[in-house]
Structures are given as structure tokens and as C-alpha cells.
Amino acid sequence: MSADAAFEVVVADLLRQPGVRRSHALRAPLGRLETVGSATPSDAEVVAELVLEATGGTALVVEGTVSAPWRGSCRRCLDDVDGVLEADLREIFERRPTEGETYLLGEDRVDLEPMVRDAVALALPLAPLCDEDCAGPAPDRFPARSSEEEPAAPPRDPRWAALDDVHFDN
User: Are 20 and 48 in contact (CB under 8 A)?
Assistant: First the structure.
């Protein structure tokens, strides 16, 4: 099976048997998917553990999990962070899909790639952390100030120095 058809499944016989469920384990790279804070490597293998169930000759329910490795930068210290995302999904494929709600079901095949791609993209962390206790960039150079400490007075503008000698008596 080519990389382009890695998430394509033949379902002709399944559609003729409503209520029958079939498991599929699919794995292939999807290319680079990214959000603001993280991305999947372009050669990363995406794994989909799915169960397909025919609900009639015109619809198919797909449920299962999708997992993929990701990389990004910690939102506090900007160190490299990586992990594996896992997304649960339950989607419907129809011959006449409703845009944004269901996916296209072919005559005898179903292309699961758009659904897998959407699930991975939505599960990518937007602002990853390297550790919940991450103190941020170089805490010794940028010490945190407690809320009880007075903020340092901003430096005075020398152009206003002449007003320091003006006093108003009541």
C-alpha cells in the first residue's frame, strides 16, 4: 500500500452488513502538522487504532484512538519539549457529508486520513510545558518579586527636573 493510501480502507463488504464491526490498526507518516506551540515531525509515524461499524449502506461510524509524537518549545523556559499525543475520536462518514460535521464515505472505500489529520492537529498542545514546576528562563537572572514588595520607582526624566523646585503653599 502506498503512503498516500495508508489510511484508506475497503469497506464494500462491511457496508452490506449493518451492525458489523471491524478493527483496523493503521500506521503511516502524515507529514508535518503544526500549531503555534508544537508540531509533529514530518517523518513521524501516526498510529490509528480504529473500529469501523456500518450503520446502513450509506453511513459508517469510526471510533478509536490516534497517537503521534510531537515536538515544541516550553512556554516558560523555551527549552525543547517532546511527547506523544493521544486523541480519542468518534466520527461519522456519509455518502453526502455535512461540511464540518461528517466525512465523505466513498462507494467501496473510505479515506480516513482527513479524520486522522484533524484529530492529530486538534490534539497538539498549544502551549506545552517541559515540567509543571518550570520556573521560566534563568530564574537567577530574573528573580521573581513577591506581591508584597514595592515596585522599583521608574527612573526620572531629566527634562522635568526644573519642576522639583516648584512648591505650592496652601
Answer: no
